[in-house]
Design goal:
CATH architecture of chain A: 3-Layer(aba) Sandwich
Structural class of chain A: alpha/beta
Mean pLDDT of chain A: 87
Low-confidence stretches of chain A: 258-264
Order of helices and strands of chain A: EEEHEEHEHHHEHEHEEHHH
Number of domains of chain B: 1
Shape of chain B: elongated
Strand order of the largest sheet of chain A: 6-7-8-3-9-10
Largest interface: A-B, 24 and 15 residues
Strand content of chain B: under 5%
Helix content of chain A: 25-40%
Bound molecules: adenosine-5'-triphosphate, magnesium ion
CATH superfamily of chain A: P-loop containing nucleotide triphosphate hydrolases
Helix content of chain B: over 70%
Largest sheet of chain A: 6 strands, mixed
Oligomer: heterodimer
Number of domains of chain A: 1
Number of strands of chain B: 0
Distance between the termini of chain B: 38 Å
CATH topology of chain A: Rossmann fold
Number of strands of chain A: 10
Low-confidence stretches of chain B: none
Distance between the termini of chain A: 16 Å
Largest sheet of chain B: none
Structural class of chain B: mainly alpha
Strand content of chain A: 25-35%
Shape of chain A: globular
CATH class of chain A: Alpha Beta
Mean pLDDT of chain B: 91
Chain lengths: ~260, ~250
Amino acid sequence: MNKEDSKIDINNVVIAITGLKKSFGTLDVLNGISVDIFKGENLAVLGRSGSGKSVLIKIIVGLLKPDSGVVKVLGQEVDKLDKKALQALRLKIGFSFQSSALYDSMTVRKNLEFPLTRNRRNLTKKEIDDAVEAVLDDVGLPQTIDQMPSELSGGQRKRIGIARTLILKPEIMLYDEPTSGLDPITCIEINNLIVEVQERYNTSSIIITHDLTCAKETSNRVAVMLDGKFFITGSFDEVFRSSNTDIKAFHAYNFINANEIIRE
Amino acid sequence: MDAFFGDIYSVAIFILQFFKEAFSGPFEFKEIVNQCYKVGSKSLALVSLTGLVTGIVFTTQSRPSLSVFGASSWLPSLVAIAVIRALAPLVTALIVAGKVGSNIGAELGSMKVTEQIDAMEVSGTNPFKFLVTTRIIATTFMMPVLILYTGFVGMMGSFLNVYQNESTSFPAFFKSAFSSIVFLDIYASLFKALCFGFTIGVAGCYQGYNAQNGTQGVGRAANLAVVISMYLIFIEEITIVQLINTIR
Ligand SMILES: Nc1ncnc2c1ncn2[C@@H]1O[C@H](COP(=O)(O)OP(=O)(O)OP(=O)(O)O)[C@@H](O)[C@H]1O
Ligand SMILES: [Mg+2]
């Protein structure tokens, strides 16, 4: 799989974050994050468990409010939007949850229909069915259409979760640990899916992960989060060839298999 | 103590939000009907059985005391007063709290801790309106229906027993039964029903919607939903009875 750097439009910033801070009680989770994400770009965010990666993307979709700093998505400042505007903005953002978050009580078909039928009320049954089948094909799971989420494997759940966000044809995708807890082969499939989505839907994405292979395969740029900040941002090779001693330490401490990937 | 008042405050906010969402469009009619059906179908079997048994047992147990005074002919009206005023509302509410309240707590709790509620929110559906408002409306308005039904089944149970022992005819039984019941009794019971239903819906939804700490939190939410509803139902029962008796 080859990511397309050529499609990235650096004159078009889709997510602009400046000086973002967030704490829970006495715990400072985000401590001044600044980053721009361009149209067509995939940014991988690496960081340890509990470093605030999920908090970061939850702030981007307005599930959490920032303490200070500015988060602009498609030109709109997220925490200043009223309910209606926020809802409209969210339809342009696909959010793939760490836990997949499929609706347990609904079949795969109903899960996929849900965002569609609730937001585009004038669609015909045929249009809905077609859209469901199309996204299921995109994620390679047409046979699961009438299954319940509890009957799916972890990797299948992740892919259905991604399909459920794709059905609204988002401009931005936020993936929260798309490969965590999956076997290497399924990881590769998910990585390929993320790149395919970038190409086919022309999305910009943030991919949260602590899987270095996933970061390398799916992203145009990598940011490493440390102490609530983006410690370093650059291409995968730049970041992990950096001679900075802190990055080396972070790297050695967190990613035991990283050396092999860099040497390959 | 601080935590207690903090809870009261957040429950108040929760209830306020319910009224705000319930009276502003777009309305979730389809989902409300769906939830009403669920409340009814989940409790129907147990409510029927309990109603019938309550009617029969209460009649059987009251008979000897009345016979002592040679007043077994008062049996239908005594049973009617007991069932319509007190037993049907209380028994039904406790059953619905146990069956439906715990189910709401567990269902919303698991949706909360597995991020399904967040997923709903980011995909452009207002989860409070879709999940909470519909359930509270369903429990509130299904409760009067269920209580009337329990009352009817209870009276039928009583009739079967009276018919067997005193061979009272069906019209005679109900004529005697309803002679002691005034409209105030029915209104009072329906008012109680609305309060109980609202309580069960709010307790279940509040506990579920605010569940935390993974699967453990789901069990806790289901459990608290039932326990809190039951306490509140008893408190409301006593308060409303006092209130009605001052009117009477
Ligand atoms: N709603 C919340 N209330 C209180 N604390 C929170 C909340 N959400 C997150 N936190 C805290 O913020 C910190 C960062 O959490 P976050 O979920 O973003 O970590 P993460 O980087 O995604 O970790 P992981 O890789 O394990 O998913 C954690 O210490 C967590 O306890
Ligand atoms: Mg996370």
